[in-house]
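User: For this week's homework, look closely at the record that follows, marking any run of repeated tokens, and judge whether sequence predicts the tokens.
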Amino acid sequence: MKTEKITLNVPEDLHQALAQIAGVSRYTLEEVYVLTLRNGMPPMLKNVPVLFHDVLLGLNRLDDEALWDILSGRRPAPAIPTNGDDPANFRALWRAYAFALLKWRGHPVPDPREFIH
């Protein structure tokens, strides 16, 4: 594939968010930028309790098959302390983040309601 080299000024917070994804995934920073240009922003965690960030970001390390396993229920969410929050909230976030990653990676994904059990 032919490529073009560009110089782009990016807001620091956006660059840091994309660098964080690259740091915890199998993608280089350049690949994360290209995926972002192609498919939109990766799933962000700004409205997710900080307690869950590391575990959810860890999903970036998984290949697509493992993410599909999460959506199908073949790979359950890990048990983590929820600080009194309903553990079902974390399980829902776990599956939603896996779904969003697959979509961001360019997969045609079915309607999320198909995965609600």
Notes: Residues 35 and 105 are 7 Å apart (CA to CA). The chain has a mean pLDDT of 89.
